[in-house]
Structures are given as C-alpha cells and as structure tokens.
Amino acid sequence: MSSLICFRPKQVEEAREHNSPDLDLSDRSISKLVDIPGLFTLKNLTRLTLSHNKLDAVPPHMIELTSLETLNLFNNYIEELPTNLSSMQNLKHLSIGMNRLYALPRGFGSFPKLEILDASYNNLTENSLPGNFFLLETLRALYLSDNDFEIIPEDIGQLTKLEVLALRDNQLIALPKAIGDLPKLKELHIQGNRLTVLPPELGKLDLYSGNTALKAENNPWVPPIASQFQVGVSHVFEYIRSETYKFLYGRHVQAGAAPPPKTNSNAKKTSRREVWGKK
C-alpha cells in the first residue's frame, strides 16, 4: 500500500502555492520519501518535519532542498544516512534521534552551519563517528544520550561554541580532559553512566551557578565525589579543583582499576523498541 494514502499529498502543493517555509509531515506512516511527488522541488522550504514515521532511509535527493535549515527525522527506522547529507549548506538543526543508526557517514563533520545535532536514542559508539566529526565547530548543542559510548574523544575540545552536551545513559567509563576546554558550556548531562571520577580539568568550568547545570545522578562515583554530590554541585567543583583531589585523581589513573561492569543497554532501550514496534 502506498504511503501516500496515509496523508493528504495536497500539503506539498499547498506549501508550493503559498511559498511556505514550513512543512510538517510527522506521524503519517510514511515509509519512502521518493513516494511524495514534488517534495524535493520545494526550494524555499526551511523546515521539514518527518518525525514519527516509518522511514528506513534518507534519499540523497534531500540535498535538493537547498534552503533547508531544520530537518527533523526523529523516531523512524533509519539505519544509514547518505554521505552527501553534510553538503546541505544552510542546515542548522538536524534531529536523527530514536533511529537505528550504528554509524554516522564519512564526511559528516562538513556541515558548514550546523548548530544543533540530536543523535540520541541510537546505537552509536566512539567508533561510529567519522574522522572529521569534531570539525563541526558551529555546534551549540550536541545530544548523544542513550547510545553506547564508553569514551568521548579528546577532540571534543574543538567544539568551542558548545553550550549543551548531553551524554546521559551511555556506557561512559571516563570523561575527556578536553571538556574543560569548552568555555561556553552551560549544561553537561552525564547521568546513568559508569563514571567513578571526574577529570580535574572540569574544574575550569562553572556548571553550578546561574543558568548552568551539571546532571550526574546514577553513576558509581568514588566515595569522596559521591559525598560532595550529596552536599551540592558547587562543592563537587570546589573539591575537584583542590590539590588534594588532583593528587588522588593521578593515583587513581595510575592504578588502572577495572571500570564498573557494563549496564544492560538492551533493557535501557526497551521503551524505544516499544515506540518503534515491528516493521
């Protein structure tokens, strides 16, 4: 059965007739974008919403929407993205969360204007990122929660405009020291990982006053850090800035203790599978 039956294709014609910059085709059971006549001729479209559908692929034709600034593909069945996607010169907000991605394509870091990337709720690891990923120097918000990262590369320090970094519910066993090189960072979400210590370099940031936030619950912190969290995040920062902590951190790293066991990522993602359902 054609996916066109599931929504009224006149929306595309209306968008063309009214020169509309916004087209919302969410929750329409669409399985193939090539089945939507005229979609890729909407040259003035700046926002396209395709969330909560049944898409298993993003066609290379997407780059024909040359004015697109926001592309929302949240909650589909997508396993792979086209390598030419990063040639979309005006794209600022890309949502590819809650899909089935195991890797991001080669050259993904070439988006010239990308400011917000949501790749949460996928199957990504540190090996899923292309070599140029951290050349996305325009990024202000990066959402990688609910994936399978054990580490985040030190190259993240290149994202100097980053204000929000969400790494909740991964398999992280350590944070990169380079997080301390993100001068504009206002929110860091690291809940539900396997973290036991924090790098002293994190102390260069202020994530405890004003409109800033450090969310770090549900980690197996070593007792000194755990006790500081019980008092408050500001006390955590005061502690990790101390010479005492820096000394203890160095000894901890040298000891090379085995990381905590992995959490059950399949159980963690059960709710996602329920949303996806069976294809």
TrEMBL record:
Domain of life: Eukaryota
Entry GO CC: cytoplasm
InterPro entries for this protein: Leu-rich_rpt (IPR001611), Leu-rich_rpt_4 (IPR025875), Leu-rich_rpt_typical-subtyp (IPR003591), LRR_dom_sf (IPR032675), LRR_domain-containing (IPR050216), LRR_R13L4/SHOC2-like (IPR055414)
PROSITE patterns the UniProt entry points to: LRR (PS51450)
Domain Disease resistance R13L4/SHOC-2-like LRR: 110-205
Keywords: Leucine-rich repeat, Repeat
Region described as Disordered: 256-279
PANTHER family named among the record's database cross-references: PTHR48051, RAS SUPPRESSOR PROTEIN 1
Name listed for the protein in its UniProt record: Ras suppressor protein 1-like
Organism: Acanthaster planci (Crown-of-thorns starfish)
